[in-house]
Write a structure and sequence with these properties.
Blueprint lengths: L8 H6 L1 H9 L16 E12 L2 E9 L9 H4 L1 E7 L6 E7 L9 E8 L4 E7 L3 E7 L8 E2 L6 E2 L10 E7 L2 E10 L2 E9 L6 E9 L10 E8 L2 E8 L3 E10 L4 E9 L10 E9 L2 E8 L14 E2 L1 E2 L3 E6 L2 E6 L7 E12 L5 E2 L7 E9 L5 E8 L7 E6 L4 E5 L15 E4 L8 E8 L2 E6 L3 E6 L8 E7 L3 E11 L8
Parallel strand pairs: 1-20
Antiparallel strand pairs: 1-2, 2-3, 3-4, 5-6, 6-7, 7-8, 7-9, 10-11, 11-12, 12-13, 14-15, 15-16, 16-17, 18-19, 19-21, 19-22, 22-23, 24-35, 25-34, 26-31, 26-35, 27-28, 27-34, 28-29, 29-30, 31-32, 32-33
Length: about 500
């Protein structure tokens, strides 16, 4: 079955340069095979993810390779654009937004609103304010910026801050959040309009100094209904993506917080989960996050190389008041070369090796009975001499899951970072259930449907081993499935 977006000739001609640039990276050992990365230049926040006309669209903060390194970051930012039929195979489209027209210095982050006959993009135009653009064509190739931009200008004397926006409609009323902070507290500033051009400040929809640390913010907000609740998913520059689940009353409007959670448990900007963008397809919500480089001087490569990766698209749901993230089912379509091992006893401190090389672009699924072991280590991207390995660990006594990258690479250019550790409480007799996606430089872990960890790693190309190790007690591997994952970039070309 052909899962690849077949672009019409008139569009393919406009994207030929991007396809040619991608081919230049075919021999790059760090180029991912089934994660989205830019066609040259630098990718940062995903923006405005949406479903339109039967296709999925992904926009992203983009420093195009045609913009020299001497340009300042806020003036280099455009919105890159890609399209997919299945959330897996992506094709580049022409740049969607740029600062060449309009009042802004650069096009920063924002989100999208899909209406019956049009798509609205809301974004932060640096040095200007919140701006809007409209698209109506089949592939969203021609966005028209509002003449009234910025519809909410920067105002240093106002009781609000203007930064990343999120736009939605409650009946005939449009509402918009500007996500940042006030008085050292994460804040979502709320605006209302009936025509998208004249906006009235309503006050903060959320002002949080309880769940978050001082000086955290609520950048890149996504506000949406899910499973009978409302979710605010946003980004804290000090600590990464976090979320609120609660009850939304659109007559107020008010948002009463019930729970708060975090999706990042390590240092920001050293190779883990970053900014969110949420796509709406009926009742389905799919989140995208970028995963930053984790290497020194990665921002110095816009004209010659590429930098930045989008994590796997993740289906969202709510369970016990917490936001749950699972890789989309469509990823199963690129599994190949299935290998399976069943029923392996894991003796204390006796490392078990998967009997063949695992691979550099794989999915694995392990189910383990922890027995009386206090700790279980799953190693991926391991070298034969033991000098490289990325280790995913579960500590029973601490009810914690972690990913340790301290031995992931011998490359001196890779930034050192401490292990990332998140909470994971297993019920009595519950098996540890790990789904791990490895793609050359990115490792994404999904555990028991309740915890997820992400890291960037840069091992040698020969480091492909998979291993298991029980510590301070015995465990039992019920099953381990490993699939090689297709290269999505040249499928059906």
């Amino acid at each position: 079955m052909d899962h690849v977006t077949a672009l019409p000739d008139r569009i393919a001609e406009r994207t030929a340069e991007a396809r040619a640039r991608r081919r230049r990276f075919d021999d790059d050992p760090f180029r991912p095979n089934y994660h989205f990365f830019p066609p040259g230049g630098v990718l940062h926040d995903p923006n405005g993810a949406l479903y339109w006309n039967g296709r999925y669209h992904l926009f992203y903060q983009f420093w195009p390779p045609t913009i020299p390194e001497t340009r300042e970051w806020d003036a280099a930012m455009h919105w890159g654009h890609a399209v997919s039929d299945d959330l897996v195979h992506w094709r580049d489209l022409p740049i969607a937004l740029g600062p060449d027209s309009g009042p802004e210095r650069g096009c920063y982050s924002g989100q999208a609103l899909v209406e019956d006959e049009r798509v609205l993009l809301a974004y932060f135009g640096t040095d200007a304010g919140i701006c809007l653009a409209t698209g109506t064509d089949e592939y969203l190739l021609d966005f028209q910026k509002f003449e009234a931009n910025p519809v909410v200008p920067v105002d240093e004397d106002a009781p609000y801050e203007i930064f990343d926006p999120c736009l939605w409609a409650d009946g005939e009323i449009y509402r918009l959040l500007s996500g940042w902070k006030t008085d050292r507290r994460a804040t979502e500033f709320l605006f209302e309009s009936d025509d998208l051009r004249e906006w009235t400040y309503h006050g903060p929809l959320l002002e949080d100094g309880f769940y978050t640390d001082p000086d955290e913010d609520g950048a890149v907000p996504n506000f949406f209904a899910l499973d009978g609740k409302h979710v605010l998913l946003c980004f804290s520059h000090p600590r990464g993506p976090h979320y609120y689940v609660g009850e939304y009353d659109d007559t107020g409007p008010t948002f009463d917080i019930e729970t708060h959670g975090r999706l990042n448990h390590g240092p920001v900007d050293q190779g883990n989960l970053h900014a969110p963008s949420v796509l709406h397809e009926g009742d389905r919500r799919v989140a995208f996050f970028n995963v930053v480089e984790g290497r020194r001087n990665w921002q110095d490569t816009p004209t010659e190389g590429w930098a930045g990766v989008i994590g796997l698209p993740r289906d969202l749901s709510i369970e016990d008041g917490q936001l749950r993230l699972e890789p989309v089912e469509e990823l199963r379509t690129i599994r190949r070369d299935h290998r399976r091992v069943e029923s392996v006893s894991l003796s204390p401190e006796d490392e078990w090796q998967f009997p063949e090389p695992g691979g550099r672009s794989i999915e694995l699924h392990a189910t383990v009975d922890l027995g009386d072991a206090d700790q279980l280590d799953l190693g991926v991207l391991g070298s034969q001499d033991g000098s490289e390995r990325t280790t995913i660990s579960y500590w029973r006594g601490s009810d914690a899951l972690g990913i340790d990258t301290s031995h992931s690479s011998t490359d001196a250019a890779v930034l050192a970072r401490p292990p990332e550790v998140g909470s994971l409480v297993l019920d009595d007799d519950e098996l540890l259930d790990l789904r791990v996606f490895v793609d050359t430089t990115i490792v994404e872990v999904f555990a028991n449907g309740r915890q997820t960890l992400t890291a960037r790693v840069y091992p040698n190309v020969e480091s492909t081993a998979i291993s298991l190790l029980a510590r301070r007690g015995s465990a039992h591997l019920h099953s381990l499935d490993v699939w090689t994952m297709d290269d999505i970039w040249h499928a059906n070309e």
